[in-house]
Amino acid sequence: MSSLKDKVVVITGASSGIGAASAVKFAKHGCRLVVNGRKQQALNEVADRCVAEGITRDNVAIVRGDLKEDGVVNEIIRTTLDKFGTVNILFNNACYHSLVEGPISINGKVESLDEMYRINVRVPYMLIQGFIEELIKTKGVIINCSSGYSVVPVTLLIQ
Ligand SMILES: NC(=O)c1ccc[n+]([C@@H]2O[C@H](COP(=O)([O-])OP(=O)(O)OC[C@H]3O[C@@H](n4cnc5c(N)ncnc54)[C@H](OP(=O)(O)O)[C@@H]3O)[C@@H](O)[C@H]2O)c1
């Protein structure tokens, strides 16, 4: 798929799972990458796997940090535009994972709900806002990863 060569791809939650696998796959197609997550070691390993697919280490920018902090979100935007000068694909993949971060239930903490909204809605909104001008110029793509849980009522909510 030669059309992806040199495209700039931003992936949140790229230190594991779907985000990490996507980073490696995009690298295989010759993309330049900006990857975010909280675990430095895991991000380094993803960068190494991207290099093993044939791109240079300079073409993988790591922005480590917790997306709960606006500064980290802004750093992703700044790093992308300063380093690569453009963006073609924004992959909003990181999520508040109720199995990892704590359940959202009617008996749960209301703070968990705030956190879920922040990571799953506010962060993608901020990133889209920061990149939209450039994405329109490049006729780019925004991918928002969701879950079946967002459309299927689950009894887990009442525990
Ligand atoms: N796996 C599934 O079966 C499944 C099903 C439906 C939907 N999905 C969706 O697919 C996407 C990825 O899921 P996954 O299973 O691949 O998840 P995962 O392996 O648990 O990875 C989640 C990623 O998000 C990052 N992340 C979480 N909170 C963060 C925060 N506050 N700041 C920065 N990074 C943060 C994690 O970084 P660190 O680990 O470095 O902190 C990690 O890289 C999610 O949007 C999820 O809703 C997955």
Helices and strands, with pairings:
Blueprint: E1 8-11, H1 17-28, E2 32-37, H2 40-52, E3 60-64, H3 70-84, E4 89-92, H4 98-101, H5 110-137, E5 141-144
Parallel strand pairs: 1-2, 1-4, 2-3, 4-5
Bound molecules: NADP nicotinamide-adenine-dinucleotide phosphate.
NADP nicotinamide-adenine-dinucleotide phosphate (NAP) binds next to helix 1 and strand 2.
Describe the structure.
The protein has 159 residues and is of the alpha/beta class. It has a single domain (2-147), classed as NAD(P)-binding Rossmann-like Domain (Rossmann fold), CATH 3.40.50.720. It is built from 5 helices and 5 strands, in the order βαβαβαβααβ. The chain has a 5-stranded parallel β-sheet with strand order 3-2-1-4-5, sandwiched between helices. β1, α1 and β2 (32-37) form a beta-alpha-beta unit. α1 (17-28) runs parallel beside α2. The longest helix is centred in the C-terminal third of the chain and has 28 residues, at 110-137. Bound molecules: NADP nicotinamide-adenine-dinucleotide phosphate. NADP nicotinamide-adenine-dinucleotide phosphate is lined by residues 13-19, 36-39, 42, 66-68, 93-95, 97, 100, 119, 145, 147-148.
